[in-house]
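Ops channel
N.P.: pipeline sanity check, posting one input/output pair.
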């Protein structure tokens, strides 16, 4: 073999050995796998609307009492019917009616799509949600500046304003009948001007009824509880109300705001219990009850009891409710009737009629 052939053979052997070595080294390496995909970003849904049962129960007490008082009418046929009306109208605790009014107003606020939608926007962001919750709990007036608050406040003042108008009309009728029944041509005059026997017992009966706890109707409470969570079911409507709002409306908006943010459930009852109390609102109902007792203490014949019912049960209830929510907003849309048709009075929907009364 020539030297050249030997060189070529050696080079070929070295090349083959190099390839074999490379293959062997490659077979010993750990295969490289692609990195795993990043975990999917999970966005937690906002908490649902939550309102605790206590608020619904308080609202049910108020609605039921309004319905009870709305059943009082003028034209009493006998002295017994006057006392029966007195018993119905006096059987309320001032604090319960005050709290019930605010609770009911908060559920009315939750019937506003604009207000609820604005709050649900904050609820989608955990940081923004907590900031709004903290602000509402720190300052009850904060909710009045939230998106849609004017629409919610309008529902409150309009709906309760209709109740006020209804109660005022009843008070006018009862007080007016207290004068009519004294006329000589009224066949009821004979018993109406007769002194009431056992006047002290009658007064103590009214005081006893005033101290009794008012129990919520389970059906009424369930209906209001469902309406609060559904944002519908009460069939209310009203124009927007511009601020400033009364303390009662501001507190009602605060409770509704917490509920829309999912922060007014059973575990947050302590917060709603604070917001549902307003000393100024309760004072009005306390004073009304005091005036009723003074009126009954001075009253002697039945027609004077009639006046006490009209003035210090029905009218005072209307006055306190009207003061609590402020004047109802005025509709700014003018409706032109068709030609040759005289427009009649529009039907007025009240809490009693809208809510099953």
């Amino acid at each position: 073999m020539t030297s050249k052939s030997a060189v070529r053979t050696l080079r070929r052997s070295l090349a083959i050995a190099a390839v074999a070595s490379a293959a062997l080294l490659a077979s010993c390496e750990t295969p490289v796998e692609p990195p795993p995909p990043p975990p999917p970003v999970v966005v937690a849904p906002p908490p649902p609307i939550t309102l605790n049962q206590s608020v619904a129960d308080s609202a049910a007490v108020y609605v039921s009492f309004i319905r009870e008082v709305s059943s009082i009418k003028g034209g009493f046929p006998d002295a017994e019917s006057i006392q029966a009306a007195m018993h119905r109208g006096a059987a309320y605790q001032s604090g319960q009616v005050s709290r019930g009014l605010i609770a009911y107003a908060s559920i009315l606020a939750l019937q506003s799509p604009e207000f609820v939608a604005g709050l649900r926007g904050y609820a989608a962001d955990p940081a923004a949600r907590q900031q709004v919750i903290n602000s509402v709990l720190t300052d009850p007036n904060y909710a009045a500046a939230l998106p849609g608050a004017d629409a919610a406040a309008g529902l409150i003042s309009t709906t309760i304003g209709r109740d006020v108008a209804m109660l005022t009309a009843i008070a006018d009728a009862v007080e007016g009948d207290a004068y009519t029944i004294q006329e000589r041509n009224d066949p009821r005059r004979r018993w109406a001007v007769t002194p009431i026997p056992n006047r002290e017992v009658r007064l103590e009966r009214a005081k006893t009824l005033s101290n009794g706890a008012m129990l919520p109707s389970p059906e009424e409470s369930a209906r209001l509880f469902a309406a609060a969570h559904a944002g519908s079911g009460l069939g209310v409507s009203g124009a927007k109300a511009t601020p400033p709002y009364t303390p009662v409306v501001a507190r009602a908006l605060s409770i509704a705001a917490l509920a829309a943010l999912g922060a007014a459930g059973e575990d947050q009852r302590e917060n709603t219990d604070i917001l549902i109390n307003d000393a100024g609102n309760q004072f009005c109902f306390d004073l009304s009850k005091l005036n009723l007792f003074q009126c009954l203490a001075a009253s002697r014949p039945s027609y004077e009891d009639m006046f006490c019912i009209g003035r210090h049960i029905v009218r005072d209830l209307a006055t306190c409710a009207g003061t609590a929510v402020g004047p109802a907003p005025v509709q700014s849309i003018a409706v032109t009737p068709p030609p040759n048709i005289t427009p009649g009075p529009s039907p007025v929907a009240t809490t009693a009629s809208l809510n099953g009364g």
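N.P.: looks fine end to end. The chain has one domain: 53-231+238-330+349-354.
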